[in-house]
Design brief:
A 7-stranded mixed β-sheet has the order 10-9-8-7-11-12-15, sandwiched between helices. The protein has 2 domains: 93 residues, Beta Barrel (Elongation Factor Tu (Ef-tu), domain 3); 133 residues, Rossmann fold. It is an alpha/beta fold. 23% of the residues lie in helices and 30% in strands. It binds flavin-adenine dinucleotide (FAD) and FE2/S2 (inorganic) cluster. The site of FE2/S2 (inorganic) cluster has 12 residues, from loops.
């Protein structure tokens, strides 16, 4: 049996600075051994532990889509010890990836339905994976309308700017990009917080499922808006971020009641969360 704590060796192939403050960077990683890529089978919503030898490892959502072959992408906010070391890495450095870990968005349930994606800040990573996955020609026909509400503090803090512009131009996905505020006269999208834009733009919950990933405050204010629109709790899907260590349900660091966020989550329906203690 493979050792679940053993990371796969990967090479940093590209580092992209995403935001004006340079605190968010996307790392494109390539497996050193092609057979490891075969073993690393994932679906959007899952995460992995990124490790730097001698420094530690951190859980990060997988930002690439399984439809993109030959690499994995992770977008990392520079907040503390390990993420700061990661930000110092240059192309060519060898590090580790352990995973894939956790569950995924309910893809089978989402088939044949309208999909509403709601994201805020740097948590847009696994939602980027989901959008690329759904727009792949092999998958697009499985879903009905796709609407995306994505917000950042300012235009310079949006992730994946070129892809956002490309999705804006497509007619098989409706984008509602927003920023909290800007005085840029060239800004042509929305202004306002994500929950307000959801309220304004999303017209119906009929035959729809909503997947939501963002900071706790955004989740707290988006939930009642979705409920008012008529989304039942089992069709509101959240991805949670808790402090984690092992990522495989062994250390007990991340539990809410009897659920381990690393193993039973990080994706939970609101219906499931309502059965758990309010610790998230
Ligand atoms: C399932 C999951 C997916 C995640 N996906 C992403 C992602 O795509 N991109 C990204 O940038 N970050 C993501 N995170 C958060 C990321 O794991 C933390 O920012 C990281 O562990 C910080 O490690 P550090 O050593 O740099 O900071 P530390 O030195 O450990 O801590 C620095 C600061 O960050 C806070 N912090 C540490 N760990 C977490 C955590 N797990 N959640 C919230 N705050 C934390 C600490 O309280 C402290 O204030 C995810 C977390 C989880 C659990
Ligand atoms: S992180 Fe160890 S049990 Fe979840």
């Amino acid at each position: 049996m493979d050792n679940p704590y053993q990371p796969y060796p990967v090479r940093v192939d590209q580092v992209i600075t995403e935001t004006v403050d340079e605190k968010l960077k996307t790392f494109k990683l390539v497996f050193l051994n092609p057979e490891d890529e075969q073993k690393f089978k994932y679906l959007p919503g899952q995460f992995a532990e990124l490790s730097i030898p001698g420094k530690g490892e951190i859980p990060i959502g997988i930002a690439s889509s399984p439809t993109e072959k030959g690499f994995l992408c992770f977008t990392v906010n520079e907040v503390g010890l390990v993420s700061t070391y990661l930000h110092m890495l240059k192309e060519g450095y060898v590090m580790g990836v352990r995973g894939p870990l956790g569950n995924w968005y309910p893809w089978e349930e989402m088939e044949g339905k309208n999909v509403v994606i709601v994201g805020g800040g740097f948590a847009f990573t696994t939602l980027r994976s989901s959008i690329v996955y759904m727009l792949d020609p092999a998958n697009r026909g499985k879903f009905k309308d796709i609407e995306v509400v994505y917000g950042a503090r300012t235009p310079g803090m949006l992730l994946y700017k070129e892809e956002l512009a490309e999705w804006e131009r497509r007619d098989d996905i409706r984008m509602h990009i927003t920023v909290d505020g800007t005085d840029d006269p060239g800004w042509k999208y929305n202004k306002g917080f994500v929950p307000a834009i959801v309220k304004e733009k999303i017209k119906s919950a009929e035959d729809a499922i909503a997947i939501v990933c963002g900071p706790p405050i955004m989740i707290r204010f988006t939930q009642p808006v979705l409920e008012e629109l008529g989304f039942p709790p089992e069709r509101i899907i959240f991805s949670l971020e808790m402090r984690m260590k092992c990522g495989i349900g062994m250390c007990g660091r991340c539990n809410i009641g009897d659920q381990y966020v690393c193993k039973d989550g990080p994706v939970f329906s609101l219906a499931k969360l309502k059965q758990l203690p309010p610790e998230y």
